[in-house]
Amino acid sequence: MDLSFMKEDTLQAAQALLGKKVTTVIDGAVTSGYITETEAYLGIEDKAAHAFQGRRTKKNEMMYREYGGIYIYTMHGHHCMNFITRDAASPEGVLIRGLEPADGIEIMQERRGRMDHLTDGPGKLTKSMGIRRDPHNGLRLNQGPIMISAGKEPAAIRESKRIGIDNKEEAVDYLYRFTVCGNPYVSKDRVLPAVNNGWK
DNA sequence: TATGTGATTGGCT
DNA sequence: GCCAATCACATAG
């Protein structure tokens, strides 16, 4: 699909990504899900971003790529996946925090070692889909084992504060987190379930 | 349900 | 050695 919606504005891209279908083909297994939760990280001006003030290290090097790149980092032994937006001068991206499982649910259950809560958190969904840092950091969307395509349309988008950045001063209050309102496959702050899981 | 806390790993400085 | 955009479980109410 056309990825140019990720070229200009990261906050808009984070909302446009809701409902897109993410598919991986890893270790011979196909898994997929619809994006339910995203967070925008606005690079140089955003205290919560890895590239705040232009910080550039081996770890966050991938943030300085063109839109459509994939940035994966590890923390506490978990992998988190971002889709890069804009260009090399704007190290911005969107963290994928939640998916509604679609294909390959049995494989996700096997990878996770449990039957539920497969993709309702950034570390959980990468594990379910087989995504790891070493083989996948720096790849590009739709040019390898990680792909996105058209999916569903959210009936309503909810914005809220980002999760897990409580020591980043004013940045903690930015409403840069977006969820499909009423969808149960989100990591926190669930609201009352909506009909059709919040899809149109 | 909401909040708190312990576990724990990889990656940089 | 220190830090982290997490997870899972325990406890209280």
Automatic annotation (TrEMBL):
GO molecular function, one term: DNA binding
Keyword entries, A-Z: DNA damage, DNA repair, Hydrolase
GO aspect biological process, one term: base-excision repair
Residue numbers spanned by region Disordered: 115-135
Record-listed E.C. numbers: 3.2.2.-
Superkingdom of the organism of origin: Bacteria
Catalytic class of the enzyme: hydrolase
Transmembrane segments: none
Keyword Transmembrane helix: no
Family assignment from sequence similarity: Belongs to the DNA glycosylase MPG family.
HAMAP family, per database record: 3MGH
Name of the protein this chain belongs to: Putative 3-methyladenine DNA glycosylase
